[in-house]
Amino acid sequence: MDLHTTISAAAAGDANALNALFERNLPLLEAFLRVRAGRALQARESIRDLAQSVCREVLGDWEKIELRSEKEFRNYLFLEAGRKILKKARFHAQERRDARREAGSLDTDEAETLRGVYASVLTPSRCADAREEVAAIEDAIAELPEAQRDAITLTRLLGLTTAEAAVELEVSESAVRGLIARGLARIAALRSAQRGEG
To answer: Where does a domain end: 82, 104, 126?
Structure first.
């Protein structure tokens, strides 16, 4: 089934098409959650569990969603993911959960998938271990100022245009382009430092 047919079938409520749409977007959703959640939340929550929870909530809202394109679906998915992160962060801040109950780290398959997402978004991988590479990229993204991190997340992970990101961030398109350029330059510098270059 091609993408257009899948979207049409999903919009009509076809369960197989819905599953295909979720599966197609799951690596990006997990990458988005990892970048947005930060280390503290990742220490207490499984990214895979968060992603599945977001998918369940989107399925629960399916009747309210007007689906004309995969981009609209993805935007809704990531909006829900952002809400989920805020909700979980507030929960853990209030509960002060014991750090000994932290979730485990990435397995090799998850790390390879995320490395593929990040490599296509940011820079080619030079690290043999996918888990190390994913952690290093996430550390570099976490070091960015929030505006740069948001601009890169919206355009490079979510696939928004600079015009769409400008609306989301309430800044001009030229400001978004500047944020992306500075953010990518900063990531490149941080990655070089992590690898001991320069």
So the answer is: 104
